[in-house]
From TrEMBL:
Annotated source species: Pseudoprevotella muciniphila
Highest taxon, organism lineage: Bacteria
Transmembrane annotation, as ranges: 237-254, 260-279, 291-310
GO molecular function, one term: transferase activity
Cross-referenced Gene3D superfamilies: Spore Coat Polysaccharide Biosynthesis Protein SpsA, Chain A
InterPro entries membership: Glyco_trans_2-like, Glycosyltransf_2, Nucleotide-diphossugar_trans
Protein name per the record: Glycosyltransferase
Signal peptide: none
Length: 329
């Protein structure tokens, strides 16, 4: 068997249903599916059972330990030469596994990943949040989605690894957030090859409202400092841009008390976002929501980064003690 698809899930039976449905339409069938229920209170066992006559699917329930450890649990029970790691909130186009196979046949590698897109049926807010996470104007490029000179670090929503490489590295660490970048970094450090498969993309639903989106990107900012301390030298200028944006916003808002024109840069930035998002999504409604999503994405990440920098680097708190309530419940 060539592929084992690993899906960790926590209280998302509806999304698992959509993902499994998309797997039934794949043009390549040489794969198994392993669904790992991570201590959910709302089980997807019945949903998975409904696909047993159409997919080689296996369901496991375990106590809650976070997505990384649940992926490890699934890989330990996998049979494929490659493991494909997917988040439960993605949906696959019919050609997904075919595109992965084509890339591996043309140029084999040890690890890989693909980009994500917004489905036409997503809500306008979901499309706006997708824009915020992928746009050049919001540093979305650090996620990867186009071939570039820098290394490509696969993300856990759409990631593939040779099973033997995965097991040799011990899989994902105990980190609750940023664990995919930690794993990708360890893949590179061990000397394994890793690249982007640009046509092996997925539809990624992400968060459905700005409050949840803020929490997600805030935790990403926190994780960046944790990753920097685990892997010195990995912090890049682009990782600092949301923090700089956050500081500039604070300064300009204070300056508004004395001069209304101090808000001009933020207004110009909002206008750029509105025009770019409206054109790309062919919707001014998405464009308006994208303004809010862009500010949430940058300020959420920036405040998380600053908060983590203070607790980890100034107060010298250990990783697990500094953010117990966020990640390590």
């Amino acid at each position: 068997m060539r592929f084992s698809i690993i899906i960790p899930v926590f209280n998302r039976p509806g999304e698992v249903d959509e993902l499994l449905a998309s797997l039934t339409g794949q043009t390549v069938s040489d794969f198994e599916v392993i669904v790992v229920e991570d201590g959910s209170s709302v089980s997807c066992e019945d949903v998975v059972a409904g696909y047993e006559d159409r997919l080689d699917v296996h369901y496991f329930m375990k106590p809650n330990s976070g997505p990384g450890q649940s992926r490890n649990y699934g890989v330990e029970r996998a049979q494929g030469d490659y493991v494909l790691i997917l988040d439960s909130d993605v949906v696959l186009p019919d050609m997904y596994i075919s595109e992965v196979s084509k890339e591996l046949d043309a140029d084999p590698c040890d690890a890989f990943g693909g980009p994500d897109r917004a489905h036409p049926d997503f809500t306008r807010m979901q499309k706006a949040i997708n824009y915020g996470m992928t746009s050049f104007f919001t540093t979305g490029g650090i996620r990867g989605g186009k071939k570039k000179l820098d290394k490509f670090y696969p993300r856990s929503f759409n990631m593939g690894v040779k099973r033997e490489v995965y097991l040799s590295l011990g899989g994902f660490s105990e980190m609750r957030f940023g664990e995919d970048i930690d794993f990708s970094t360890r893949i590179f450090k061990a000397g394994h090859s890793c690249r982007l498969f640009p046509e092996a993309w997925v539809w990624h639903k992400r968060r459905t409202n700005l409050k949840r989106f803020f929490k997600q990107v805030h935790n990403s900012g926190i994780a960046r400092i944790n990753l920097t301390l685990r892997h010195p030298g990995t912090l890049k200028l682009v990782h600092l841009l949301p923090t700089l944006f956050t500081v500039v916003c604070a300064v300009l808002l204070i300056g508004e008390v004395f001069c209304l024109w101090s808000m001009a840069p933020l207004v110009l930035f909002a206008l750029i976002i509105f025009i770019d998002a409206s054109i790309k999504e062919k919707s001014m409604g998405v464009g308006l929501r994208a303004i809010a999503a862009a500010f949430v994405q940058l300020v959420g990440y920036g405040t998380g980064f600053i908060r983590s920098w203070w607790r980890r680097m100034v107060l010298k708190k250990p990783e697990f003690e500094a953010f117990k309530k966020n990640f390590y419940k």
